[in-house]
Each structure stands twice: as structure tokens, then as C-alpha cells.
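Notes from hallway chat w/ T.B., transcribed later so I don't forget. T.B. wanted the structure written out for a chain they're using in a teaching module, and asked if we could keep both sequence and C-alpha cells in one place. Agreed to drop them here.
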Amino acid sequence: MALFYHGLNRTNLALQHMSRALLLLSLSSGPDHPDIAATFINVAMMFQDAGKMDTALRYLQEALKKNERLLGEEHIQTAVCYHALAIAFNYMGAFKLSYQHEKKTYDILVKQLGEEDSRTRDSQNWMKTFKMRELQVYEMSEQV
């Protein structure tokens, strides 16, 4: 229901449903369940779309901590968290941080899926994009 409302740009209502979903998930599965971390990523994306980047980053960092602790530092779901953080930092114009987080994504995906997997290649393309944006910002600052 939350994703439906979010799709209708009713983010506040969507977040209310996500809050309830997190409560029910926590009660049924416990606070240390990988689905909690996955839900945190969805909540973060909603806050990001609403322009509330500080809140989005807190949820993404908490999701990353949970995934690293519950699934391991080299799990694909951990890579998803790193990628979500890279996108959030990109949205904020912090391209160096975007690149660093996407590099972690890429390293995990290479190890788990191999270099030829489409997700690994996508990550590599994101790294190139973030590096290019970082260089553009640097070049613009040099011209000023």
C-alpha cells in the first residue's frame, strides 16, 4: 500500500504505511531481520524523493549496518545498500562519496557474480558516471 501511495506522490501517507509495516515486521520477525533493512531502503527512497536527504541517509546507513551484521559484508544485499548510498550522495552532489560507495558495490558484485553479470557492468557504468561528474565539478572549480 505504501508503494502505491508513493507512486501517487502521497509520500506522507506512504510513510505512515511504511512505519506500520516496519512495526508489524519487527513484531513478527524481530528487529534484526534482513527484511527490516530492505524496508529501510524503501523508506529512504521515499525520503530522498521528498528531498529529505538527511533522513534518507540515516535509513540507508542503518540498512547497511543491519545487512553487514546479518548477511555479511560481501552479500549482494549489502551491495544494494552501498549502491543506494551512492545514488543518494550523487543526488546531493557528493560525487566522490558516490564513487567510493559504488566501488564497494562493484567489488562485492564482482566477487559474488563475476565481471560479466549485468548488475556488475551496471555498477561499473555508475562508477564511470560518478568519476566523470567528480571531474566536471573539479574542472568547473578550477575555472572560477
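Follow-up for T.B.: Helices lie at 2-7, 11-29, 34-49, 53-70, 76-91, 95-113, 118-143. Might be a good example for the class.
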